[in-house]
Each structure stands twice: as C-alpha cells, then as structure tokens.
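Schema walk-through. Below, the input block comes first and the output block second. Nothing else is stored per chain. Lengths vary across the set, and this one has 333 residues.
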Amino acid sequence: MRIILTYNQLEEILNNEIKYQDWNNIFNDNKVSVELDIDLVEFEEKISQQNSILLRFSLTNGNPIKIFDGNTDIEKNPSNVYFKYFSDINITGALSICDDFINPFKLNYFKYFKNNEVLNGLLKNILKEKSLTSNSLIINDAYIFGDSENINKQGSKNLLNILDAIIPLSLNVPYHVLILTSNPKMKDQTIFKKILNDLILKIEKIRVDFKIYIEIVVSNKEKYHKRKLFTNFLSITTDKGFYLEDNNKVKSDNDILIETIFTRNNVFNGDSQHSEMKERLLNLNKKFVKHALSDAYLNSLSNHDKTYYVTNFDYEGEKVIKNRLFNYYCRES
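--- output ---
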C-alpha cells in the first residue's frame, strides 16, 4: 500500500505522535510505502537540515521515505491513500484523506446471524454501509456453491449480493474480482460449468459504467478452509462462509467480522490485518492457486478433471491470475 502526502502533512503527523498515533503506527509498517509529493531539490534540502524529520523517520522505522513520482498506475500499485487532493482519486479506487487527517481504518464490526433469521437484505445493507472504496476484490470460500445437491444457484445469489454491496458505483478503471473455491462435485458437471458462466455474465451487469473482470478458480483437490474476503482496504471474515443466505433466511448459525486492513495497527496488539492479508494470499497462491491453475490448464486440454479456471479476461495458453490486488501481494512467490 502507498501513502502519498506533502512534507507539511508528514511533519504535522510525526511531530504530534499522540494525536496521530494510528497514522504513526501505519507509517511504521514496513509493508507501507510512504511517499512525499515533493521535488528532488526540496527533498534533499529538507533531509539535510538539522533534526530533519525525514532522516529521523528513515532511521527509526527502517523504511525510507520515497519521492512520489506521479505514477498512478493501479496495475502496479492498486492500493493508494492520498492526503493531497486530486480530482480523480476516488474513481480509481483510492482513499482520499481530508485535511483533519481522520483515520478511515477504525472499522471493527461484528454481527451474529441466527439460523432461519429473516434477512430482508440486512447483510447487503451492512456491507454497503461499512465498505471503503476499492478497485479489486478477492474472495476465498471452498463452499460458496454449497454441496453436490445445490443446483438452485443460491451460492451465486449470495455472491452477487455481496459484490453489488461492495463494488463502487463509480470508477474510471476496470474492477477486478477473483473467486477461489472448490468443486461441489455435482454429478452433472455441465450444470455446474453453466452456473459459473452464468455467474460471470451476471456479475458483469452489476455495473454498467465500467468493466468488471472476473476470474473464478475451482479446484477438485485443494481446499483452503479459511473463509476470507479482501478488498484494497477491507478484511472480511465469516465463520461458516459467504453462502449465508438461502431464500431470504440465514442458512445456519453464522457470523461476519468486517475490519479494515489497519484496524489493528499497534505491534503490541499483534499482526495487522494488512500483514494477515499478505500472508494469507501468499499461502493461497502457494497451496491452492498454482496447483489449481496447472490442473485447469491440463483439464482444458484433456477434460480429465473437475478443476476449472473461468474468466472474462482475454487470455491464450497457460492460465495465470490477472487480479491486480492478488498479483501485488504475490509477486515474490
């Protein structure tokens, strides 16, 4: 994640450590790139000053401040936080911080759902209210499509409601969705593959003003049991999965925890959600995605397996994940 701000803003935050404790903690995360909107001459002048806050920051947290190069390419850096106002920030899925530096990463919301509770759109409304802007989403749930008898597409309906609640109404860039799941092993796999293709068509129609690119990876072998949903700035966890609702009622006792990636930002409270997201995505890539994509490629050639990669991205040959958020955290793996 990148945080872009001016020298004066950085100075204000670093010199008022108690008032801006959360921001100081986030700046000190070695997975965060703090970048100044400043030219090289002024930067060198500031860092050479006696008691320079730039030098002090670099020495204390081991994460040198960089100069913002003006590059707003979200394929390279999908998660950006801007303290300086730019007119087109939000429509790229970036966070904009107002002049009083209010921390948007405070969210910590928990909700318990009782079996057979009538929802009437409750989960969708909660997600709409709690969501932060984004340009990418990853959901891992091995059982989102239910079991082998589930041919009523309720899993798809749950996914559509979740995505409709979280995907922004306005963007000037394509939105990326990655769904990682396991094969429910229906006897007729033709029905299941039709459900997948129909789901992609329905997700595409959630928004009409910008493109939504979807990738669905279905494994017949591997399962990653932790049910998680990540966006650029949110971490969402459910106890029994995102297939929560069945015909407007709670399918079984379940709960949902909605946090930001820095709700927990003090090292004395353990790992941040940001650190957790990176580690979980690296594990997903290593233990699930790589094997599933390899099997899906062989499956497309010989049809010997029930492992699939379904997408509306254009691609040829070997199957690779194109979701920008996933690739940002898995580049090194």
